[in-house]
Every structure is written in C-alpha cells, then in structure tokens.
Amino acid sequence: MRGEKEYLNGLKSSSYKGKHMGLVESGKMPKSLTKLLNMSRRYSMWVYQWGLACCAIEMGAAFASPRYDVMRLGVIPLPASPRQADFLVVSGTVTDKMAPAVRRLWEQMPDPKYVISMGSCANCGGPYWDSYSVTKGVDQIIPVDVYVPGCPPRPEALLEGIVLLQERIMNEDMAERWRGDPIVVE
Ligand code: SF4
Predict the structure, then answer these.
(1) CA pseudo-torsion sign 95, 46, 114, 151
(2) Where does the pLDDT of residue 14 fall: very low under 50, low under 70, confident under 90, or very high at 90 and above?
(3) pLDDT digits over 123-148, tens only?
(4) How far is the CA of 92 from the centre of ligand 1 (A)?
(5) How confident is the model at residue 34 (pLDDT cuts 50, 70, 90)?
(6) Where is 175: in which H helix or E strand?
(7) Which pLDDT score, from 0 to 100, does residue 176 have?
(8) 3-state secondary structure labels for all residues of 72-83
C-alpha cells in the first residue's frame, strides 16, 4: 500500500506538471450524447436579467406576462443569483458607471454562459451613442451571442432572439464550448 508521501510525490511528478485540464478535454464525445446534452441545456435555461432602461419594460413583458409565457420555451426567469444562470439578457442603456458591475456579475455566471444584448442602447449605445457617459455597446465589456435590434424591441423580438440562441446551443460542439479556461496543475 502506497504511503501518503509517495502519493503526493506522484501528483507532483513531471507527468502532471503544467498539464492543462478542462471540463471537456477532447472532442471525442459520441454524437448522440452531445445531442442529448445540448437538447437538455437548450430547454432548461435560467435567465439572469439586467434591466437598465426603457427596454427593460419590454423584457419584463416577455418574461413576466402570461401573454408570452416564456416558460413554454424552456426558459426559467428570475434565478436567485448569476451563479445559477445560463444566460444573461442586457436590456437598456449601459453607462460607463454601470459597466464594471455588469462585467462582475457576468464573471460570476458558470460556464457555459451566453449573453443576449437587447435593444439599440445595449447593442451600440443607441440614441446616446455620442454621450460622454454611455458605453458604446455591452460587447465592449462582455461577449455577446445574440443581438436583438430595436428601440425598443417588442417582446416577440426578444423571444425570437432566445429561439436563435437555443438553435445555436443545439448545434454546439461541446468540447469547444465547455472546455473553458484551462486549470494548470503545477
Ligand atoms: S434602445 Fe431605445 S427603448 Fe431601449 S433603452 Fe435605449 S432608448 Fe430606451
């Protein structure tokens, strides 16, 4: 039976040193398993919301009103925190003062995570693009997967953006998307 010291030495041996490890290390997943997992993720998406200005009213209608019933798409609104969320909707005007907070909460979301930018302001600054205090698009601070145009977009436009995101998730290569930042074992 190996002793504790021997075991630790084994972990520190050169074969482990500097090795990169991720959630999925290689792309050799069976296609049927990839499809099953992608479908599961597609229809169980927790959404975290940033309502920053008038677009948030339309987002509220899409997520909270029985007329649109977003849960029929497999989207669960109102997670308790970004740590349970799968995707983020940024709707409204992102100011330079608010941008660090958006970034910080996006960083708290677990991978794989997605972002929908809703409305002209979040897409590019909108009517305030030349303002001294407005960020010229939320994609300057976090990566955006789907842009929903409009000022403001109707709730149906946001739902279409969500459906587009779901189609993208369905066709994802899990190894590419889930690999995440490598953990370096010294
Ligand atoms: S895009 Fe238009 S509706 Fe949306 S937050 Fe900006 S000004 Fe308001």
Answers:
(1) negative
(2) very low
(3) 999 999 899 999 999 999 999 999 99
(4) 6
(5) confident
(6) helix 174-178
(7) 66
(8) HHCEEECCCCHH
Closest-CA residue to 28 (of 167, 182, 179): 179
Q: Is 66 exposed, middle or buried (0-12, 13-18, 19+ CB in 10 A)?
A: exposed
Is 134's C-beta closer than 6 angstroms to any atom of ligand 1? no
Ligand 1 pocket test: pick from 91, 93, 134 the residue with the most ligand atoms within 8 Å of its Cβ: 93
DSSP string for residues in 102-134: HHHHHHHSPSS-EEEEESHHHHH-GGGTT-SSB
> Ligand 1: which atom is nearest the Cα of residue 150?
1
The two three-digit tokens of residue 68, written as one number: 């649109």
Nearest-atom index, ligand 1, CA of 93 = 5
CA of 134 to the centre of ligand 1 (A): 12
pTM > 0.85: no
Whether pLDDT at 152 is above 90: yes
**Which SS3 state, helix, strand or coil, does residue 182 take?**
coil
Atom number, ligand 1, closest to the C-alpha of residue 123: 1
Q: Are 86 and 49 in contact (CB under 8 A)?
A: no
Indicate if ligand 1 lies below 6 Å from the C-beta of 153: no
Taking the chain, what is the end-to-end CA distance rounded to the nearest angstrom? 25
